[in-house]
Amino acid sequence: MSDIVRIYDENKVKQNGAYNRDNIPKNYYYFSVNVWIVFGKEKIMIQKRSENKKFYGNKYECVAGGVVGDETIIEACIRETKEETNLNIGSKDLIFINEFLDKKHNYFMHTFVACLNETYINKIKINNDEVSEYKIVNFDEIIEKMNLNLFADSFNLRFPLYLKKFKKIINTM
User: Model pTM?
Assistant: First the structure.
């Protein structure tokens, strides 16, 4: 899918036109998504981005991508999850966690958790253009990898902001 995105001002007012997400005008932002895939308590999927990715190659992240064209945030979550992991999720699988304005990277990041049955683990098939590997980890392993600078820096900014809410959702599964 094309990287053409709609742009918004700091107050999330949609602007006219569409831009390649690499050429967003200064002081404008696009919508982006993160989807944390969880298989029961503390079985969290992380992915290492392909070394060929323009940003954060060989760094860990969760499912992530831009909201392109006229798709909704939820449609982007579903598309990106399918594109990167081959998993079919629906809107009912998604729990909203947080929205974060990242001025450095020019996007509003919308973060969700997808709570899936463990049988989904056997259905994962990564797209090597997007992801070089995946791991099923717990929170301690995420923090360990963060301390070793193995995650994308944008992840390091966001994760502490929603960790408590994320843990609460997982612990109620």
Answer: 0.91
